[in-house]
Design a protein that fits this description.
By secondary structure, this protein is mainly alpha-helical. Helices cover 82% and strands 0% of the residues.
Length: 152
């Protein structure tokens, strides 16, 4: 590693060598940066405290920034609710309530129809009627097939 070779010329790099393991840096690009004189000049100008930033603190800072942004987003979402004019807001609330009421009514109807369907064949007479209806339809279909065979 070229950074280890530069330690004898720049003693400020020695405490940083261990901390570089905490970061994921592309080897090719890292070596290209070390070779350039600009980087060496920057190391000489800036104190050690700027270069050494523990990863855990950075992650915590990023997380806290994200939490702040998320809270700001929540505030932004809640703002349009109050910015609507009162009559328009009230009419929308009425429409929502009406749609919820209609939804409940349709759900009740649906449940009643499900119960009727489940109880349809509880009575033996109903089952016999259903079997007779099926037999009639099968007879008609068979008759139509026989007629088609005769005509062909």
């Amino acid at each position: 590693n070229k950074a280890k070779g530069l330690v004898k010329y720049l003693p400020k790099l020695s405490p940083l060598l261990g901390s570089l393991n905490d970061y994921s840096v592309c080897q090719k690009h890292y070596n290209n940066i070390i070779i350039k004189n600009f980087f060496l000049e920057q190391i000489e100008k800036v104190s050690d405290s700027v270069f050494y930033v523990p990863m855990k603190k950075t992650k915590k800072k990023v997380l806290s920034d994200n939490e702040i942004n998320f809270r700001d987003f929540g505030i932004q979402v809640s703002l349009p609710e109050h910015s609507l004019p009162n009559p328009e807001y009230e009419s929308l609330i009425k429409k929502i309530n009406e749609l919820e009421r209609l939804n409940q009514q349709l759900l009740l109807e649906n449940n009643l129809l499900k119960k009727k369907l489940n109880n349809k064949y509880d009575n033996q007479q109903e089952r016999v009627k259903a079997v007779v209806e099926i037999a009639k339809r099968e007879r008609i279909a068979l008759y139509d097939d026989v007629v088609k065979l005769i005509n062909n």
